């Protein structure tokens, strides 16, 4: 019988997170404060607890995972890896396709890999309450789950359109004990201002971040937590790629190509950064980040200092950005609609170490359906971007006759996104490429630095 599933023992779960900053050719560009100087740890302590700030600025290559965190992660980790024999056959490709499956967590995606340590460190630091934002609801549900594990109160500002369109994500957060508000609300300055300008404001991720940050900054027992973009989030996700390496080694494989979808960059960082250590040591491996054509941050955005939220409360980060006032088109991969991207990942793309590609919406759902019919698992619309790119690479192997080894991260399942699949089947989804003019205009709105 062909081997399909590659598993690890609990004892083989990584004991350390991998910090890519240690292997980057140039040191990571620092976040800047309003005065144009690098942000001090002290300034960050208004919204983050001490251990999180330390990890955000860490330089050392390996950072130990606390036992109490590993204990909770073993609820679903190590996560399985599969060889996509049926998909390979359906495509008629000589390529070997492997995927790491992160949909096995209780929240259904990779996000609890960071939510759990974030909740743990906040608890240890004496924090009572966490605030956060959520778009489609995946991060909100992950931090609600993690808050519950360690006895922290969690308040989630959920983008209003998603609050209305995804009631079950809200129920999930409430089941895990969180308080969920439709953002913009009338109990923060940022929310009030947005509602005064437009009472029907549908909300955006940037605005929800402004609300969550404001509440954390104005309450001493409250910290803010973010589900992607920041260095410590990318760090926590590297457990994915480290496990993947061990799993491939068990079947004597090493990838030629590593693929992940990219919203803020965390699951991509998770699967790809551990391979970057080998690449830095001279090994040949392509690292490929995939984003929607409708939110083309890495492929068409500006590499510049910009705010992480829409109001301008966060420090300035050097990253690819579509402008902090970017209003996302309503595509279905809600988790990929952020205006910026991880500064670490952005810098690696800028330096040519990581490749980035865009995919149109319809092609992602076509790939998702093809994958589900071959492999069984129904991918989240975000993950469909990685699937689509893996299929493109496998088809290229068919053309060239090369038997490359392809690894991609299947970041989550699509069980809460079946309405999007319905629309795809009904022919109601469209391709939408973000207009060039809007990208040009964003340049004039970028904050001036120095
Ligand atoms: C949130 C999410 C993403 C995008 O976030 P990243 O930080 O870029 O990983 C991708 N896939 C799934 C399933 C998600 O929930």
UniProtKB/TrEMBL annotation:
Keywords of this entry: Amino-acid biosynthesis, Aromatic amino acid biosynthesis, Lyase, Pyridoxal phosphate, Tryptophan biosynthesis
Gene Ontology terms, MF aspect: L-serine hydro-lyase (adding indole, L-tryptophan-forming) activity; pyridoxal phosphate binding; tryptophan synthase activity
Reaction(s) catalysed by this chain's protein: (1S,2R)-1-C-(indol-3-yl)glycerol 3-phosphate + L-serine = D-glyceraldehyde 3-phosphate + L-tryptophan + H2O
Stored InterPro entries: Trp_synth_b-like, Trp_synth_b_CS, Trp_synth_beta, Trp_synth_beta/beta-like, TrpB-like_PALP, TrpB-like_PALP_sf
Residues found modified as N6-(pyridoxal phosphate)lysine: 111
The keyword GTP-binding is annotated on this UniProt entry: no
Cofactor names: pyridoxal 5'-phosphate
Protein EC: 4.2.1.20
Cellular component annotations (GO), alphabetically ordered: cytoplasm
Start and end residues of each Tryptophan synthase beta chain-like PALP domain: 76-412
Protein role: The beta subunit is responsible for the synthesis of L-tryptophan from indole and L-serine.
Assigned protein family: Belongs to the TrpB family.
Quaternary organization: Tetramer of two alpha and two beta chains.
The protein's name: Tryptophan synthase beta chain
Protein's organism: Magnetofaba australis IT-1
Lineage of the species this protein comes from: Bacteria, Pseudomonadati, Pseudomonadota, Magnetococcia, Magnetococcales
């Amino acid at each position: 019988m062909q081997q399909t599933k590659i598993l690890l023992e609990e004892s083989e779960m990584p004991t350390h997170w991998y910090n890519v900053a240690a292997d980057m050719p140039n040191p990571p560009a620092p976040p800047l404060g309003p005065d144009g100087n690098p942000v001090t740890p002290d300034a960050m302590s208004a919204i983050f607890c001490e251990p999180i700030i330390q990890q955000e600025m860490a330089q050392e290559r390996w950072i130990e995972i606390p036992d109490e965190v590993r204990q909770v992660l073993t609820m679903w980790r190590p996560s399985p890896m599969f060889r996509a024999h049926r998909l390979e056959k359906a495509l008629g490709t000589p390529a070997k396709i492997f995927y790491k499956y992160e949909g096995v967590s209780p929240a259904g995606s990779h996000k609890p890999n960071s939510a759990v340590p974030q909740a743990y460190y906040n608890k240890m630091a004496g924090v009572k309450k966490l605030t956060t934002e959520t778009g489609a609801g995946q991060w909100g549900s992950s931090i609600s789950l993690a808050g519950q594990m360690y006895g922290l109160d969690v308040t989630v500002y959920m983008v209003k359109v998603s609050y209305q369109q995804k009631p079950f994500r809200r129920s999930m957060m409430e089941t895990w004990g969180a308080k969920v508000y439709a953002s913009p609300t009338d109990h923060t300055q940022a929310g009030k201002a947005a509602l005064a300008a437009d009472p029907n404001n549908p909300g955006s991720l940037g605005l929800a971040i402004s609300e969550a940050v404001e509440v954390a900054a104005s309450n001493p027992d409250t910290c803010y937590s973010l589900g992607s973009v920041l260095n410590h989030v990318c760090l926590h996700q590297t457990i994915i790629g480290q496990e993947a390496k061990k799993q491939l080694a068990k079947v004597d494989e090493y990838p030629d190509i590593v693929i992940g979808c990219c919203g803020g960059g965390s699951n991509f960082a998770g699967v790809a950064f551990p391979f970057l250590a080998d690449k830095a040591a001279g090994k040949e491996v392509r690292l490929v980040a995939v984003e929607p054509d409708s939110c083309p941050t890495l492929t068409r955005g500006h590499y510049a200092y910009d705010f992480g939220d829409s109001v301008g409360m966060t420090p300035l980060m050097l990253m690819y950005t579509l402008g902090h006032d970017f209003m996302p088109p309503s595509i279905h991969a809600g988790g990929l609609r952020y205006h910026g991207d991880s500064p670490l990942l952005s810098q690696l793309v800028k330096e040519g170490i990581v490749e980035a590609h865009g995919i149109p919406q319809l092609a992602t759902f076509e790939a998702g359906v093809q994958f589900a019919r071959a492999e069984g698992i129904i991918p989240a619309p975000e993950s469909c971007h990685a699937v689509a790119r893996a299929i493109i690479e496998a088809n290229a192997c068919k053309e060239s006759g090369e038997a490359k080894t392809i690894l991609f991260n299947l970041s989550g399942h699509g069980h809460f996104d079946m309405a999007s699949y319905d629309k795809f089947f009904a022919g109601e989804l469209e391709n939408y490429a973000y207009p060039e003019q809007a990208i040009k205009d964003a340049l004039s709105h970028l904050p001036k630095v120095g």
